[in-house]
Design a protein that fits this description.
3-stranded antiparallel β-sheet; mainly beta; about 150 residues; Immunoglobulin-like; elongated; 2 helices
Length: about 150
């Protein structure tokens, strides 16, 4: 867990950035949704850093409010100096949450899916914590494109 940033230790440090580049539907059936969460970490420093942990949850808006449909994590990913790295994390939905999501999808025609988490990045003298959030709307067209192999 990240206790906070210690910026005063070394003013030459620059904060890395963490973003969710994309959430892609990998597979779809009536019992399961496979997603790829694509996370980009940019390290502007002259030394490497490590993404120690980045737990995240995937939720969707249903008639009952926010429903968690899946969760994932990234652990111990090394990012080289002055570089960026993209990590693709495959996740699959849990059945109970996914059934509620399917019901919402069928009644609403589209559902917003949100990925939230906190990245903890460490280097030899400091650490940073970054909240991340990304929302996409899953539409019938996206599901049809997936079924057609697009």
């Amino acid at each position: 867990m990240c206790a906070g940033t210690k910026h005063h230790l070394m003013p030459v440090l620059r904060e890395p950035s963490v973003t969710i580049e994309d959430v892609r539907i990998r597979s779809f059936s009536l019992s399961r949704l496979g997603l790829d969460v694509v996370i980009r970490v940019v390290n502007p420093n002259f030394f490497g850093v490590t993404v120690e942990e980045l737990p995240f949850r995937i939720t969707c808006r249903t008639g009952e409010g926010e429903t968690e449909i899946a969760a994932g994590t990234v652990n111990h990913v090394r990012i080289g100096r002055s570089s960026d790295t993209t990590v693709k994390v495959p996740v699959a939905t849990d059945n109970a949450g996914f059934i509620r999501a399917i019901a919402a999808f069928l009644t609403q025609g589209a559902i917003p899916v949100t990925v939230t988490g906190v990245a903890t990045i460490d280097c030899f003298v400091t650490s940073w914590c970054f909240p991340i959030i990304h929302t996409l709307t899953v539409t019938p067209e996206m599901v049809a494109d997936l079924a057609a192999g697009k």
